[in-house]
């Protein structure tokens, strides 16, 4: 299955900039590179919140999870990462690998 | 395929496509020493770094490094994850060899999906120790992760040209502020457990039972129990399919369940990870360790450096045999394998190359996984010379003892091997090594079942075995009555004989000297008295274990009356014989509470956790010796051959060599079949005796609340019931 990604960065009145990345399809090791590039792109804006819209993301390989770690490292520990509607297997993997505590899973942003 | 473009046509390796490389926009910003200089079938590469061994990421590439003392050539073989065939095989140009080390950097690889191996060329001359076979693709001994057995007992592709595939692991795990806990060893209460057996049973009621991740869901339980250290049976990558076969009677698959057969020393077992199928076992294991540390629980690994999964000359070639047979294994003059491990081969631990690998490996686990300590399986082998003879000053053991990275790690030896070398008490310790005290187990079992002539030895064992560890202190003694190998505690008092028929080996396997006693009936019984006695014996055992000097170790499930139905060698059973049935917790709640109370008692009383041996003198002027021994008459130990009872008293003023004031503790043990009255040593300063434990009392009354112990009816004597233990507190 294909993978598509797009992003925008908006100013939020109180919380600073909010970067939203929309992920769709299967995030495997190849598409993880696109994901990383998108992170790098929005990182320039130094967002306070990073929102990953995962509602249409059906699979996330380990490479995708590593990009989540990368985003923390790239933007800094003060970055809040919100995962919007991730599918349960993705949440499980985040849980097993200790990444779940670094993100906030929400039905909708702002939570 | 996600890796660099491969061509199907054979192209000769050619040097320096330099112009192309420099013009490649994507790499114009990298260091000049990371430009490709060579190309083979479209894959770019250059001379690598000899160190570190293994496969490590470098800018825009992966550095591969492997050594062989006798290979004549080496080829790097690269696969996309799970592919039937490699996408490229790159022979190492001779100029890439540094001494015996082949090293190469390959560029533009998809590190997430990469699997790699080697072909080693050289002589096949077993009589000279060489078993090279370039038709076999070999795992890297330094691989940080292995593919091929990603999900427990998922049927592998038996025709795979490369069954155990080396993979990379990444060092981006977020440890936050985690750090090994570095508890003083005398403060540990160790819980020996098997990752899969701990949570696989449906009654465990966890998600992803049998995995690293599931341990997290039981941390609350471990904390409630009070243990502060778990010792994990082997978690290095092993193959559960090794020597597997269907049970001829039941058809059930018999597998390598325990895991004492290493395929790779640096890789955690993927089949133990819920995320193994995604190749994320490294992260999952680290997550569990971090969480355990957060909850005050150390992690010790049971490591198996005495042999590998390659077996003897008839075994499979996986890695070591094909890379450098003569270096990695102890060989007979005829070129066969010494078998001090009882499993076909023996790792040549005191060869300098192997020694370095073991050291590198343990450093890696200590530094990258925050492991708190190691228990070495059949550690006596680690002290054997390359010809198999015992060394008086084994360099490996010395290296481990003095290594700066391992400086705070616990080092624990199983101080014997299958070749007859028994070193309990004499293991080369260098002031660092502790031992599984097999003599503690044997003596306690004999005493508990009422054997004559045990008092003299018991006096030593409860003191931390000064007869064995006089110069090393009580902390050299890991005290245990049961471990994975042998009966559970319940079975020790429910079976006279082993019952190992389930593996269809006609009950030939497993030890015969169990020092067990069935209390009157073999196996399960409805007899109320026998069952009461069994429960009492379990409590007696736990009580003595947890008031002994040294470091107590409890076997998983003994605190809830776990049974293996009289089987003392369940190495191959992936079923209820090994899986912990958590419904026992409800059934035997009193036993759990009893164990929990004793652990609390041990933690509350520093006098039970001395790091030095007793002096049998009063060096603080309290009027009492640090430890004194008694019989039914106070101050008069009866060590005669027919005696089955004794008591000891620990003076609280001598706790931690007088640095801390503790209560005085008196423990009376009567393994005679009738009750005996013990005269109590009088206490000074108006203190009185209180009862903490009386195993002769029914169930919940056997133990009192810590700190709220009731006074004894009499301050001059107590009646200790038949086959019973009493623990009194003087305060």
UniProtKB/TrEMBL annotation, chain A:
It holds the Pfam family STAS. Belongs to the anti-sigma-factor antagonist family. It comes from Persicitalea jodogahamensis. SUPFAM superfamilies: SpoIIaa-like. Residues 8-111 form the STAS domain. This is Anti-sigma factor antagonist. One of its GO terms (molecular function) is anti-sigma factor antagonist activity. The lineage of its organism: Bacteria, Pseudomonadati, Bacteroidota, Cytophagia, Cytophagales. InterPro entries: Anti-sigma_ant, STAS_dom, STAS_dom_sf. PANTHER family: ANTI-SIGMA FACTOR ANTAGONIST, ANTI-SIGMA FACTOR ANTAGONIST TM_1081-RELATED-RELATED. NCBIfam families: ant_ant_sig.
Automatic annotation (TrEMBL), chain B:
Pfam families: Alpha-amylase, CBM_48. GO terms for molecular function: amylo-alpha-1,6-glucosidase activity. SUPFAM superfamilies: (Trans)glycosidases, E set domains, Glycosyl hydrolase domain. CDD domains: AmyAc_Glg_debranch (cd11326), E_set_GDE_N (cd11234). Residues 192-602 form the Glycosyl hydrolase family 13 catalytic domain. NCBIfam families: glgX_debranch (TIGR02100). Belongs to the glycosyl hydrolase 13 family. This is Glycogen operon protein GlgX homolog. It comes from Persicitalea jodogahamensis. The lineage of its organism: Bacteria, Pseudomonadati, Bacteroidota, Cytophagia, Cytophagales. The gene is glgX.
């Amino acid at each position: 299955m294909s993978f598509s990604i797009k992003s925008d960065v908006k100013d939020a009145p109180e919380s600073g900039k909010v970067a939203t990345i929309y992920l769709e399809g299967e995030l495997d090791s190849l598409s993880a590179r696109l994901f990383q590039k998108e992170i790098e792109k929005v990182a320039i804006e130094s967002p306070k919140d990073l929102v990953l819209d995962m509602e249409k993301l059906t699979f996330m390989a380990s490479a995708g999870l590593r990009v989540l770690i990368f985003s923390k490292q790239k933007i800094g520990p003060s970055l809040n990462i919100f995962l919007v509607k991730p599918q349960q297997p993705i949440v499980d993997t985040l849980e097993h690998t200790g990444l779940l505590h670094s993100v906030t899973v929400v039905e909708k942003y702002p939570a | 395929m996600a890796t660099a473009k491969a061509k199907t046509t054979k192209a000769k390796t050619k040097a320096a496509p330099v112009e192309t490389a420099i013009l490649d926009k994507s790499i114009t910003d990298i260091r000049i020493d990371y430009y490709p200089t060579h190309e083979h079938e479209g894959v770019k590469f250059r001379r690598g770094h000899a160190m570190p061994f293994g496969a490590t990421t470098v800018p825009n590439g992966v550095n591969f490094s492997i050594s062989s003392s006798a290979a004549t050539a080496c080829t790097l073989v690269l696969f996309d994850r799970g592919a039937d065939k490699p996408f490229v095989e790159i022979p190492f140009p001779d100029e890439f060899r540094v001494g015996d080390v082949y090293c190469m950097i390959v560029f533009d690889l998809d590190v997430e999906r990469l699997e790699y191996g080697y072909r080693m060329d050289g002589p096949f001359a077993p009589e000279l120790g060489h078993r090279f076979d370039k038709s076999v693709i070999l795992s890297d001994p330094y691989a940080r992760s292995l593919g091929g057995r990603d999900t427990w007992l998922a049927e592998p592709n038996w025709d795979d040209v490369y069954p155990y595939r080396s993979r990379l692991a990444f060092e981006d795990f977020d440890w936050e502020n985690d750090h090994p806990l570095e508890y003083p060893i005398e403060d540990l209460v160790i819980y020996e457990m098997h990752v899969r057996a701990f949570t696989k049973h449906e009654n465990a009621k966890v998600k992803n039972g049998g995995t690293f991740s599931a341990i997290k869901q039981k941390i609350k339980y471990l904390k409630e129990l009070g243990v502060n250290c778990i010792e994990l049976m082997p978690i290095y990558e092993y193959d559960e399919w090794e020597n597997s076969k269907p049970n001829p009677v039941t058809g059930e698959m018999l597998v390598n369940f325990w895991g004492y057969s290493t395929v790779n020393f640096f890789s955690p077992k993927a089949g133990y990870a819920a995320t193994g199928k995604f190749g994320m076992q490294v992260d999952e294991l680290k997550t569990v360790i971090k969480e355990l540390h957060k909850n005050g629980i150390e992690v010790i690994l049971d490591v198996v450096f005495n042999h590998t999964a390659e077996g003897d000359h008839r075994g499979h070639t996986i890695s070591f045999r094909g890379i450098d047979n003569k270096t990695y294994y102890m060989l007979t003059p005829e070129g066969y394998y010494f078998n001090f491990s009882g499993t076909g081969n023996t790792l040549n631990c005191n060869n300098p190359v192997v020694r370095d690998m073991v050291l590198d490996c343990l450093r890696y686990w200590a530094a990258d996984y925050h492991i708190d300590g190691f228990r070495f399986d059949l550690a006596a082998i680690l002290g054997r010379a390359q010809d198999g003879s015992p060394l008086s000053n084994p360099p490996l053991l010395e290296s481990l003892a003095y290594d700066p990275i391992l400086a705070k790690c616990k080092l624990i030896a199983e101080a014997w091997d299958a070749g007859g070398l028994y070193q309990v008490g004499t293991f080369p310790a260098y002031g660092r090594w502790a031992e599984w005290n097999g003599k503690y187990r044997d003596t306690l079992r004999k005493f508990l079942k009422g054997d004559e002539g045990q008092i003299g030895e018991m006096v030593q064992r409860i003191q931390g075995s000064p007869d064995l560890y006089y110069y090393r202190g009580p902390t050299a003694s890991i005290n245990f009555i049961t471990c994975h190998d042998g009966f559970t505690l319940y079975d020790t008092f429910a079976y006279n004989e082993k019952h190992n028929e389930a593996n269809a080996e006609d009950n030939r396997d497993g030890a015969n000297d169990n020092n067990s006693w069935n209390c009157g009936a073999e196996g399960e019984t409805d007899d109320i008295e026998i069952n009461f006695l069994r429960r009492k014996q379990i409590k007696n055992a736990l009580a003595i274990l947890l008031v002994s000097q040294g470091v107590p170790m409890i076997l998983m499930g003994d605190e809830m009356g776990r049974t293996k139905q009289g089987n003392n060698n369940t190495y191959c059973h992936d079923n209820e014989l090994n899986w912990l049935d958590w419904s026992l917790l409800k059934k035997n709640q009193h036993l759990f509470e009893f164990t929990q109370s004793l652990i609390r008692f041990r933690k509350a009383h520093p006098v039970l956790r001395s790091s030095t041996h007793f002096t049998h003198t009063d060096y603080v002027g309290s009027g009492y010796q640090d430890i004194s021994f008694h019989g039914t008459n106070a101050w008069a130990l009866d060590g005669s051959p027919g005696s089955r009872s004794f008591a000891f008293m620990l003076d609280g003023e001598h706790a931690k060599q007088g640095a801390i004031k503790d209560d005085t503790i008196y423990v009376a043990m009567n393994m005679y079949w009738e009750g005996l009255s013990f005269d109590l040593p009088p206490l000074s300063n108006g203190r009185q005796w209180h009862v903490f434990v009386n195993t002769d009392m029914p169930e919940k009354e056997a133990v009192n609340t810590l700190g709220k112990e009731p006074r004894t009816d009499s301050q001059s004597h107590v009646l200790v019931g038949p086959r019973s233990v009493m623990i009194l507190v003087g305060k």
